[in-house]
Hints:
mainly alpha; two-stranded antiparallel sheet; 10 helices; 2 strands; 81% helix
Amino acid sequence: MQLTNSSDPGSGLSEANLVSSVLMGCFCAVGVPGNVAVIVMIVWWFKKDNFTVHLMLNLAAADILGLLTLPVWMYNQIHGWTIGRSLCKFLASLAYCSVYSSLLTVTMMSVHRCLQICFPELWAKLGKSGERFLLFLIWTTGFVFSVPAILSQEVVERESKQECGRIAYSDEYRLPVATLETLLAFFLPFSIMVTSYYYLHRRVTQKALIRSRRLTKLVTRIVVTFIIFWTPYHILNLVEIFAICLRRAYPDSSGRVLAFTSSLGDIAGSFTFINSCINPLLYACASRSLRHSRETEKTTIVQTSSI
């Protein structure tokens, strides 16, 4: 995730910077209260011993954590960085940690629904302590993945102001970093999600209860939305990888392509935060049917026990 565009040290406030700043402001204004409402709704309406519910709370918390850093990056793009090198590195690692934690949470959602419905005995062996460990592992792994941000983010000079941004490294550094980011943050989780849903949707209509099917649909929408809003960013990453690989053979064309991906990097990166704003809408749309299905199941259980 590219928080700020640092590939052109001589650029001031570009049109892309302005557009991404406006987008980030809108996403923060909508996403933070929306996710707070999600947490309140989940705590009020959903079962507390359901691991999917714990993952939903985890996702909302990660979304809030990432969205709360957006005003800082907006100010950074418009006015520059004035709060020191340490906070630059800390806030960058916090933003990356929240993004990776969201990614791991969404991936775990798909794996959990698959195992719980297709292989319930296997998931039951994990137990509550195992579920708590998985939640801890999500945040720990998210923090580990954010470590490169601490190394690559610096206060850099751009024209008459300083900004907190990613250092413009050589191609030998950028290529493995972009490749690793694409593999870990897109292809690997995407493959896990696709595999999980391949098995899940073969069984869900046969084995799941009404509430379980509806909860599965909600999780599916969350996963699909996540993929939709992250795909443009990773497409730019792939284009950058190919452009770097072809720089020696086609230096002029490669330079133009890299300039193009760099100009769109801020906008694509800011659009990833729209996913954090969409999730509350998905919960809100599903909450009524989930509450209705819960009441239906309770009625069914009462009628069955009375026979």
